[in-house]
Amino acid sequence: MATALLPGTFDPITLGHLDVLRRGRPLFSKVIVAIGVRHDKRTLFSIDERVAMARAATAELDGVTIEPFEGLLANFARAQGAQFLLRGVRNAMDFEYEAQMAHANRHLLPGLETVALVADPTLSHISSSLVKEVHAAGGDVASFVPDVAVVALNAKRG
After folding, report:
1. What's the CATH number where 97 sits?
2. Known catalytic residues?
3. 89, 116 in Cβ contact below 8 A?
């Protein structure tokens, strides 16, 4: 059976991420949520906080593990023995970006295929960036993220 990576920053994990994970999980024997350390991107949550949030949000999902990674995704896929990348696509801009990344990753690791799931229309407007922006302005993000992320966001606000 095949292993897939669901890569991202997950700053914070959203209901959209969880939807892609739940829908994509039956396609693979195992899915690794690969949480990237991005030195070029300022994150609200540390890598340890993002990993802990993702672990709490996915605790009931069998065959799902959470792992931090740094560097090239293709190298991490090789190290994990992953044959697939699982991605969510919300709109045409996402599709263009994901197609470009799929070509690059397949070049870096021949045989690494990308499986893209079209976002649930009720969740397609959600992004981690939107969540942080709405929350920073005092808005309610409970319909965008799992409870563990609401708690973590509120703790950051103080």
Report:
1. 3.40.50.620
2. 17, 41, 90, 128
3. yes
